[in-house]
Structures are given as C-alpha cells and as structure tokens.
Design brief:
Distance between the termini: 49 Å
Number of domains: 1
Signal peptide: 1-18
Structural class: alpha/beta
Order of helices and strands: EEHEEHEHEHEHHEHEHHEHHE
Helix content: 25-40%
GO molecular function, one term: methyltransferase activity
Region (Disordered): 33-61, 204-240
Strand order of the largest sheet: 7-6-5-8-9-11-10
Bound molecules: 2-acetamido-2-deoxy-beta-D-glucopyranose
GO biological process, one term: methylation
CATH topology: Rossmann fold
Number of helices: 11
Strand content: 15-25%
InterPro entries: SAM-dependent_MTases_sf
Length: 428
Amino acid sequence: MRICLTAVCLDFVQGVGADSQGVMSKRTARMMEEGSSSRHNISGGSQRSSPESTRSLRSEDLSVVNENGRAYPNDTFFMPCDSQEQTRLSILHRVFLNALGGQLTTAPLPSTIERILDVGSGSGDWAVAIALEYPGAEVVAVDLAVWDVEAAEEDAKQRLDEQGMHDVELPEVTWEIADLDMWGPVEHVEVTVEEGIEDEHVAKSVTGLNTQEGGKGRANSVQSNRSSRRESWRRSYNPPSRRGSVNLGWNFSEPFDFIHIRGMKGAFAYWTGVYRECYANLVPGGWLEVVDFQYHIAQPDSVMREVFINFHAVASKSGYPVTTTHLQREFFEAAGFEEYEMIAIDIPLGAWPGDDENHTLGKMHLVSLVESIEATALRSMTKHAGFTKEEVQERCGDVVQELLTGVHDQLETSFRFVRARKPLNDDK
Ligand SMILES: *[C@@H]1O[C@H](CO)[C@@H](O)[C@H](O)[C@H]1NC(C)=O
Ligand SMILES: *[C@@H]1O[C@H](CO)[C@@H](O)[C@H](O)[C@H]1NC(C)=O
Ligand SMILES: *[C@@H]1O[C@H](CO)[C@@H](O)[C@H](O)[C@H]1NC(C)=O
Ligand SMILES: *[C@@H]1O[C@H](CO)[C@@H](O)[C@H](O)[C@H]1NC(C)=O
Ligand SMILES: *[C@@H]1O[C@H](CO)[C@@H](O)[C@H](O)[C@H]1NC(C)=O
C-alpha cells in the first residue's frame, strides 16, 4: 500500500487494513450471518472474561453515529471509528513499535504470562501482536467501537508469511465491546498550553540529529533543553475531581497479569478511577503499562499551534482534557502501584532527519498526524465550540499545509512509556 500526501509518500509493505467502505463492512456482515457464535467471541460468551462488562452482539450494538462524514461509536466520544481511523491507528501502531525498536511493551513480562488486557484496543494491531508473542496467554481486547480486527489479523498473517512462517496459527484474541469509562467527565480543569502541547520546548539539541544552534532563526528565541522539557511533564499532582461517586467495577471475572493502555489520553477523564480499577484487576506482581505522546509545537504564530490550543481548551471544557498528566508517578502511586518507571523517547515528525531509519519513521509519523488532525478536532470543535464542519476542515487543511511545507522546523513528538507494578504481597 502506498499512501501519498502532497509532499510525502510512504510505502507500506503490507496493507494497513483500509478498505473504502465502513470499517465494519466485512466483519459485521459475517457476524450478522453467524450470530454471536463468531469465531471472535466478541460477546461475553467466554467463561474466562467478564460477562457483565460486555454486551451481547445485537445489531443495534453495531450501529454507529454518522456525523460530518465520519462515523463515531456513540453520541459523545470525540474520536471516530471508521476505516480512515483504522488506517491511522495501524500506522500509529508502527510508530509506537519503532519507538521501542520493535518491542511491544516496556514491561518485563515473564514468558509464562497467562492473561493480558488491552484497554482501548482500536484497530487491534497491538492485541494480535502480543497474542503472537505470548501464545500461551489469553488476550482480552476491549474497545468502545467495532473495528475490522480481521484486517489486523490478516496483516499479522501476511507478516509471518513474509518471514517464511506459513503455517503459524494466529492465537485467538477475545474481542469485547464495552465502555470502560464508568466515571464520565471531570470538573472543568484549567489546562495550560504547556500541558496541552508543550510548545515552549523545542529542544533541538536533544535529538542528536542536528545539534546546530543558530542559523535558521525560527525557534531559536525559545530557550529550551532536555531537562526543561522534562520539567513540563512534572506538573504538581493535582488530580481532577469527579462529579458524584462511582462504586461499579469493570467486572472482569478473573484478574490479569498485564494491562496495557496506549494512546488513551482524552478517552478517560478520571484517571484516578482508571488506575484503581486496573489495580483491582491485576494479580499481585502484575504490570500496568500506560503509553501516550505529546507534540512539541515551536512555531509561535502557526495555525497548528492555534488549532491545538483551541482544541485543548475545548476538550477541557467538555470534561475530557487531552493531556498526559495521567502519566505522572503520583497517579500510579495513589492507586497502590510500585516500581514506577517512565521511558521517554523522542520521535521525529516529518521527513527532516538525514538518516534513512529516522527519515522513514518521521514520514510515517507525519502521515499519522496528518490523518489525525481533522479526526481529532472535528467533533469537539463542532459540538463544543460552535465551529462549522467547513471551518474546522479549512483550519485543519491549513495545518496540514504547514506541516507539508516545512513551516515547523524539525518537529518531534515525545513518546512516554510508563510501567508500574502491583506489589507482590498484595493479594486483594
Ligand atoms: C466462544 O464462546 C463459546 C461459549 O462460551 C465457546 O463454546 C466457544 O468455544 C468459544 N469459541 C472460541 C473460538 O473461543
Ligand atoms: C459492571 O456491572 C455493573 C452492575 O451490573 C454495571 O452497572 C456496570 O456498568 C458494569 N461495568 C461495565 C464496565 O460494564
Ligand atoms: C461514549 O463513550 C465514551 C467513552 O467511553 C463515554 O465516556 C461516554 O459516556 C459515552 N457516551 C454515551 C452517550 O454513551
Ligand atoms: C535516529 O534518531 C535517534 C534519536 O533522535 C538517534 O538516537 C538514532 O541514532 C537515529 N538513528 C540513526 C540510524 O541515525
Ligand atoms: C536547561 O533548562 C533548565 C531548566 O529550565 C535550566 O535550569 C538549565 O540551566 C538549562 N541547561 C542548559 C544547559 O541550558
């Protein structure tokens, strides 16, 4: 598959699961034919997962909300769940993989691991990959929306074929549809620009790719270095509060050895509750990994910066801030976790790096960002900020133009991988 934007082309060795129809097309059609005995056991049929946390597969469960030309899993969730989004998530999965040099996680998992939970599994690429890596483990992948997870499976199969492994059975993943956000929005929290986009922290010098200071001018007035950027991740611990109280749980019938939450900023608002629930659903000694990223937008009067600031303000207003404050140590420790460790990796955004490896990675990352700008902003900006679809699209188009014409010099994204462990002696 070849994806081309005005200035960037990217070849994928394998397809990333796009088809031009709705993402549900093939899979839904088959499940409808077969009823809930689909080979994916997406409903709560499996003894080992949680009957109550899943809904049975009825046609109304599969309906999506169509709005402004995109499909959404429900009336409020800010991200779409169509084939375009599936493609983006698959590309982003490659970026995450690349960031870790091909590893799926930073958690030191024993090979004997038995149960793995992927919260917000999206396109399903990670869940399929981890199931392949730990064939003895049961992998439960939960998402709010129905995705064409068969595309992820076919992709994995093709990859194996290319490596000469033709007869490998893909392990079953238990795909569940459930809304794991039992807490709803939080009280309005002020989000500073730094928390939202870290724009003041260019830190060219951290990349090791181009340590030349001076010259180009643009971002030079911004004083920054790696440690100041680090600081911006360490806000004071000030968890937002919730309206009302929730005593319900996720209802998984058996605990997990590993819970994985990637790219879920903005999907949950009350992270204190999320981590508490993760803790309750882990075996003693079990690992939690939470992964997210932030862009650094240096260019002071760029459209990109303006759009991001607007978007972050609107997201906070909606009660679901799209920040990464939930990666802070204090959140994990408050829930009882130990052995907190954050691994920080800067990934180039755009085709600017000189070496082939980073060049390809930067391009891939750019494609996923370009794909995500409108997807991320459209619903929030039209629903909560009174913009029209056309206005949002125009602004987003301008951002894409900026990205492709090199207005933003040497952009990077900070990827953060946090792992933490439930104490071995806690068998609650
Ligand atoms: C799906 O769930 C049913 C009911 O629990 C079970 O009998 C069946 O073996 C499961 N199928 C797969 C492929 O796991
Ligand atoms: C867990 O079960 C309770 C009680 O049946 C239910 O209200 C709640 O929504 C369930 N949680 C999830 C995540 O489905
Ligand atoms: C839609 O899903 C999100 C994400 O889980 C949830 O927070 C929200 O309450 C849901 N909205 C509705 C109307 O069900
Ligand atoms: C890619 O960039 C990273 C960090 O910016 C650097 O450590 C690495 O050496 C680069 N890769 C190559 C092949 O130059
Ligand atoms: C890096 O930033 C920190 C915090 O702003 C500052 O204290 C430090 O002096 C800076 N270091 C360099 C080498 O500029």
